[in-house]
Amino acid sequence: MSAQTGSAAEYRPAGPLDLGPAIMFTPADRPERFAKGLERADAVILDLEDAVTPADRPAAREAVVAAWAERQQRGLDPERVVVRVNPVGTAAHEQDLAMLAQTGWRTVMLAKTESAEQVDAVVAGLGAHTRVVALCETALGIVASARIAAHPRVVAMMWGAEDLVASMGGTCSRTPDGTYRDVVRHARSSVLLAAAAHGAAAWDAVFLDLKDHDGLAAEARDAAAVGCAATVCLHPGQVPVIREAYRPESEAVDRARTLLAEAQRHPGAFSFEGAMVDEVVLAQARITLRRADAVDQG
Fold this sequence. Notes:
By secondary structure, the protein is of the alpha/beta class.
């Protein structure tokens, strides 16, 4: 199949993108931060959108091209690098894709994703092996999130609070006590459910208050508890907070190991510590161990 043709039905499923719990944005016009970001975080997102002014985008694109050419010398693992491109329908988007076509970077975050057809366009422009992280941060994108997640080349789904609220004519995503407003929580849930339903990873939105580590930790713990694979961040100081939040407590890890060992002795449901254990409980135990391993490997 040509890289310039095809529809979602013709692409092979990519599977979920498993990079680790702490993924960090890095401005694409700051190439000196690329390798440093990878040393700190589980993966980096080279950002051509919000983190770079329009005037600086040409230089940022040159930096992304140079980073590909020098990836081995600079220790840039393509499997751990994502490039965020500007929204479909903008001149910057077309320029971003033309630049990426000169490189081998093929994990692309599409800002303000609003349809599966937009994902089709990105994959058609960069090739059938392109992996897309769909960033749903408008009302239309949230409403379409299930269709977007069903695209076979979508490997992760992310949502954004502030752009979403702005797209609805609002001004603030949080209440005075710092919690998300109901409509924003609904959007978060919609993207998480869409990702889970279609086998994509779910990435939680950035936490903007860089000094509030307690708030970040609470939000990241909640993200991990409901099935998010990662929380995206803006600063290296947030990385250890996220990793610790995603790490299951040692008691939970020990219990999961004991429970799974006990299950080897019982072919069906059984009682453990006074509670009935079935396959769902065992699945949760396996998830606990996978999360612990993912944090330790980071």
